[in-house]
């Protein structure tokens, strides 16, 4: 495993609050997160999670190399991508699924960059963003975790992800860290 990507929308802050702070201080991988946030807002997510998490939390920067054990949030109004060498890239290309940042953009670029070394996680949300990206991760041989729609504040996004990638592990949000650690141990 080389990296973890996470996508969330409606209800995502609450779901991420159960996943990210539970990661141990020695978590070995970079974690890239896209949450649908309004374009003209400061990224309050970084401050919110920096105070709760045991590993560093930051806003992703263009051309930044990925560091293990760091959580990167996509900045408002920019797509977050991973380039072939594992460097981050930001893009102001058109919204995808009515969103910028879009989960599919991150997931598809990370699948290209990391292939079998990638774990993708789709959490709660009210549209289908993340479904095609998770399909790309599965097609590249990566691992997929989808929040159990029954435990999601809004089940639309997890249901779409499961339809696109039916072999995903379906996990209640409070058990995602354990599922991720089991994947890394394999």
From TrEMBL:
Cellular component, GO annotation: cytoplasm
Catalytic activity, reaction form: [protein]-L-glutamate 5-O-methyl ester + H2O = L-glutamyl-[protein] + methanol + H(+)
One Gene Ontology term of the molecular function aspect: protein-glutamate methylesterase activity
Residues annotated as catalytic: 9, 36, 129
Family matches, as SUPFAM superfamilies: Methylesterase CheB, C-terminal domain
Domain CheB-type methylesterase: 1-186
One Pfam family in the UniProt entry: CheB_methylest
The enzyme's E.C. designation: 3.1.1.61
Record's keyword terms, sorted: Chemotaxis, Hydrolase
InterPro entries listed in its UniProt record: CheB_C, Sig_transdc_resp-reg_Me-estase
PROSITE patterns: CHEB
BP term (GO), one: chemotaxis
Stored PANTHER family: PROTEIN-GLUTAMATE METHYLESTERASE/PROTEIN-GLUTAMINE GLUTAMINASE, PROTEIN-GLUTAMATE METHYLESTERASE_PROTEIN-GLUTAMINE GLUTAMINASE
Name of this chain's protein: protein-glutamate methylesterase
Organism: Qipengyuania pelagi
Organism classification: Bacteria, Pseudomonadati, Pseudomonadota, Alphaproteobacteria, Sphingomonadales
């Amino acid at each position: 495993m080389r990296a973890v990507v996470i996508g969330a929308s409606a209800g995502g802050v609450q779901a991420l609050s159960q996943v990210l702070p539970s990661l141990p201080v020695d978590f070995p991988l970079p974690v890239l997160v896209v949450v649908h946030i309004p374009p003209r807002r400061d990224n309050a997510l970084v401050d919110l999670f920096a105070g709760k998490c045991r590993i560093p939390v930051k806003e992703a920067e263009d051309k930044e190399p990925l560091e293990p054990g760091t959580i990167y949030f996509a900045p408002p109004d920019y797509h977050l991508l991973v380039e072939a060498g594992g460097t981050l890239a930001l893009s102001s290309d058109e919204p995808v699924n009515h969103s910028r940042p879009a989960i599919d953009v991150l997931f598809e670029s990370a699948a290209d960059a990391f292939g079998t070394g990638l774990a993708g996680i789709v959490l709660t949300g009210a549209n289908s963003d993340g479904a095609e990206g998770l399909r790309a991760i599965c097609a590249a041989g990566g691992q997929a975790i989808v929040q159990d729609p029954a435990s999601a504040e809004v089940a639309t996004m997890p249901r779409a992800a499961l339809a696109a990638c039916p072999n995903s592990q379906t996990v209640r949000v409070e058990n995602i860290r354990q599922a991720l650690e089991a994947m890394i141990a394999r």
